[in-house]
């Protein structure tokens, strides 16, 4: 199972774990896979602290960092003199406030509301190109970071060249074969072909259809993402030309994941069809857990979604209220269709063990099938 990308990055098996949780990143990496920390939810200072912690706990192994570099975003939000909060129309603020008030979800106490708002404003520019590049500069100072990955668009060619000069590989998520040329032009080393089943920002083409198209068009290293939670699916992805897999949703249910018990319970209750594509989180299409909050934005008369990072700020302010009240019926967070296969808390070690075990069984079965003919 050790493919070329494992040799280049120094991992044992090509199972990549995307996670916002540092413990997941460390545990996957220590179990032989390759952990990639989602940096978008951290300010540059927080990211520095998180990476220092990972460096201390990961031993001699390497890991990656992921950022969002959107092609379309609110350009005013990049200006230092502009407060992102002031760019959000009153109509949108009122819509969210009324929705939560009518649901009986209490407002945050004033001190906490101020703290949450300061925190959210501090990180609100992370999902603009300038903000993402600041995070990448932090990542570049950590020698164990051997891979950086960008989602939502090709990273700028100068950025790719800068990381190559430091011996860091550059990857990018790709949901459409038409985008491969841009990534190739930018000099990206590895593509993550992410199908529509995936949690988080996702397109419309399923992994089964997308993956072989991207393998053919890119000609280099491709990982499969979206809908992968079993070893047999890893075998299928490798059969279609992937050099490995990239999973996100699967780790949410592990004890290393920082989700609270109320969040995990909501995920474990959900079926595959409860992971729907909606725009209420960032203004772009995100596959997320369906709730009364996500569905309210789909009703006639709901305001039109804002662009990143404005919609993100609205969503996270609402989430702070929903989480404090532990209102699972209004809880919507990114999750892929594989949530339908997750029913209880596991551990990263257990997940890795099961993936590898089933992969080996599948390969054995396929070899037997082929030789029986
Ligand atoms: C909770 C969550 C948050 C995500 N946030 C990001 C992100 O910030 N950047 C990114 O590149 N991908 C993000 N993704 C997508 C993952 O990188 C990955 O492609 C996807 O989860 C794979 O499909 P799966 O969910 O079926 O495993 C996120 C996924 C989840 C579940």
Characterization of this structure:
The chain contains 15 helices and eleven strands. With 373 residues, it is an alpha/beta fold. It has an eight-stranded parallel β-barrel with strand order 1-2-3-4-5-6-8-9, surrounded by five helices. The chain has a three-stranded antiparallel sheet with strand order 7-11-10, with no helix packed on it. The chain starts with a helix and ends with a helix. The mean pLDDT is 94. Bound molecules: flavin mononucleotide.
What would the keywords be for this entry?
373 residues, 15 helices, three-stranded antiparallel β-sheet, 2 domains, TIM Barrel, binds flavin mononucleotide, single chain, alpha/beta, eight-stranded parallel barrel
Structure, briefly:
With 373 residues, the protein is α/β, with parallel strands linked by helices. It has 15 helices and 11 strands. 49% of the residues are buried.
Separation of the first and last Cα atoms? 24 Å
Q: Looking at CATH, which topology of the largest domain would you report? A: TIM Barrel
Q: Just name the CATH architecture of the largest domain.
A: Alpha-Beta Barrel
Number of helices: 15
What do the pLDDT scores average to?
Answer: 94
Low-confidence stretches: none
Rg measurement, Å: 20 Å
Shape: globular
Q: Proportion of β residues? A: 5-15%
The share of residues in helices is 40-55%
Biggest sheet, spatial arrangement of strands: 1-2-3-4-5-6-8-9
Oligomer: single chain
Sequence of secondary-structure elements: HEHEHEHHHHEHEHEEHEHEHEEHHH
**What small ligands are held by the chains?**
flavin mononucleotide
By CATH's scheme, which homologous superfamily of the largest domain applies? Aldolase class I
């Amino acid at each position: 199972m050790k493919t070329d990308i494992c040799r280049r990055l120094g991992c044992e098996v090509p199972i990549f774990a995307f996670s916002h949780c540092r413990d997941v990143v460390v545990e996957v990496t220590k179990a032989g896979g390759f952990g990639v920390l989602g940096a978008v939810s951290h300010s540059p200072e927080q990211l520095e602290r998180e990476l220092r912690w990972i460096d201390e706990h990961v031993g001699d192994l390497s890991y990656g960092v992921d950022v969002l570099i959107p092609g379309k975003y609110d350009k005013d939000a990049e200006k230092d003199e502009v407060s992102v909060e002031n760019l959000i129309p009153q109509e949108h603020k009122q819509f969210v406030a009324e929705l939560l008030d009518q649901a009986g979800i209490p407002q945050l106490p004033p001190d906490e509301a101020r703290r949450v708002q300061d925190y959210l404003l501090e990180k609100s520019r992370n999902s603009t190109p300038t903000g993402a590049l600041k995070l990448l500069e932090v990542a570049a100072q950590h020698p164990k970071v051997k891979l950086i990955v960008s989602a939502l668009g090709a990273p700028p060619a100068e950025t790719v060249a800068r990381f190559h000069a430091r011996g860091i590989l550059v990857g990018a998520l790709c949901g459409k074969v038409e985008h491969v040329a841009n990534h190739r032009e930018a000099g990206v080393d590895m593509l993550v072909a992410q199908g529509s089943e995936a949690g988080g920002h996702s397109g419309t083409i399923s992994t089964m259809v997308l993956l072989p198209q991207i393998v053919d068009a890119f000609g280099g290293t491709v990982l499969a993402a979206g809908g992968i939670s079993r070893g047999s699916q890893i075998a299928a992805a490798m059969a279609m030309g992937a050099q490995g897999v990239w999973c996100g949703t699967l780790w949410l249910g592990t004890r290393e994941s920082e989700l609270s018990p109320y969040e995990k319970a909501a995920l474990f209750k959900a079926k595959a069809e409860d992971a729907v594509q909606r725009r209420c989180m960032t203004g772009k299409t995100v596959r997320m857990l369906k709730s009364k909050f996500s569905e309210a934005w789909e009703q006639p008369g709901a305001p039109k979604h804002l662009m990143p990072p404005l919609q993100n700020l609205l969503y996270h302010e609402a989430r702070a209220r929903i989480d404090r009240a532990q209102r699972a019926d209004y809880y919507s967070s990114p999750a892929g269709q594989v949530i339908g296969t997750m029913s209880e808390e596991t551990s990263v070690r257990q997940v890795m063990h099961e993936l590898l075990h089933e992969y080996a069984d599948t390969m054995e079965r396929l070899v037997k099938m082929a030789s029986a003919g």
